[in-house]
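Complex 425.
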Amino acid sequence: MERTSRIQGFYKLDMKERLKIVADWAGLTEEEVGALGNLGNLPREVAESMIENVVGGMTYPFAVAVNFRINGRDYLVPMVIEEPSVVAAASNAAKMLREGEGIRSLAGPQEMIGQVHIVGCRAPHYKAMKILEAKQEILEEAKKSSPTIVSIGGGPRDLEVRVVDSRMGPILIVHVIVDVVDAMGANTINTIVESIAPLVERITGGEARLRILSNYATRRIVRAWARTSPESVGGREIAERIVEASIIAEADPYRAVTHNKGIMNGIIAVALATAQDHRAIEAGAHAYAARSGVYKPLSRWEIDEDGYLVGSLEIPLQVGTVGGATRVHPIAKIALKMLGVKTAKELSEVMAAVGLAQNLAALRALVAEGIQRGHMRLHARNLAITAGATGDLVDKIADRMVRDGKISYEYAKQLLEAYLRGEKV
Ligand code: NAD
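Predicted structure with nicotinamide-adenine-dinucleotide bound:
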């Protein structure tokens, strides 16, 4: 019988029953079933409350980056990631950036944007004015729908209207700006935009289509910056090459994407450890990188008047210390406790700082490796000449020594003698 993926009521089954179906489908061994069915440190009820159709768990390593000093405070940074070297690199760069107050990081208000898209509206530019005229009334309506967030000092703050042309005619877009305090804010915002949509429809005479937050969190920007002596990154030459690498990323979007990927290595590892919506963070960050119309690096490195290497990073971060899975996943709770952050603002400041350090580590490794290789080659050439090589033979012997990782006068002499005996070098 042909097997089918159309499984009615799969979601209603017990986890064990679902796992059995999958095991039969994939021909899993008993050992494989045991491994997949192991939820590790996530209780079954929690796993099943988080997502649907759960059949098991998958554990990623949870590591801690050390040496971080951010805004004058020391942090142990929890990181969950599958890629080797990220945690070591973060710890390493954090050490380079510890001087003084360490990395500085500052987030603005925790404001998210909720959108209502109105279609079928006549005279949309005029209606945009009518929306602004009714701003207070709309904001009052929004506040009524979100008493908790208002009671803790957050809530709707402002309103903006845009009219954009599309192939189905003009779309009137209302943005509600909401201070979501310590939450990522998706559900908070969604409740608010749904509540104001009927009023917006009445004012505009159009129909509300999409009512949801925007993950392009341009009102939730975090800035991190740091300054370090050239010696702490390995010398002036390396510091200058780091700046060069930053400039290359500014000029070349293909490089900028990889540059930003390095930043996200750090940010997403912390996001995973603290159970953030990392897709939202990624989507927002990359859109922000392309805000000029050309994809750019989120950070820049320069050398200041004292010859110090200085880095700065600007990124939108939509994170929460409440809501979503942050207080549901037991390990995320531990990660937040370890960080000791009290607010979403502080969490985002730590994450931006980690992103900047991660970026420095990646650039340093890239340029230092190149420099190292360059130096080794120069050294190998000198040894080849000292051993008596001339002409083309100098490069041949030098390349061979670099390739073999054996750069010494003795080896250069040995290779030269082999060549003179007629052997290939
Ligand atoms: P949430 O709804 O779970 O929690 C937020 C609520 O917590 C607020 O409504 C508020 O009443 C309460 N609260 C208590 N103390 C608070 C404080 N100090 N600050 C702020 N709120 C406080 O969480 P959320 O952040 O609104 O939504 C996040 C979840 O929504 C994530 O799981 C995310 O994946 C999901 N989501 C994302 C999208 C998207 O990004 N496009 C869309 C839908 C859902």
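The two ends are 63 Å apart (CA to CA).
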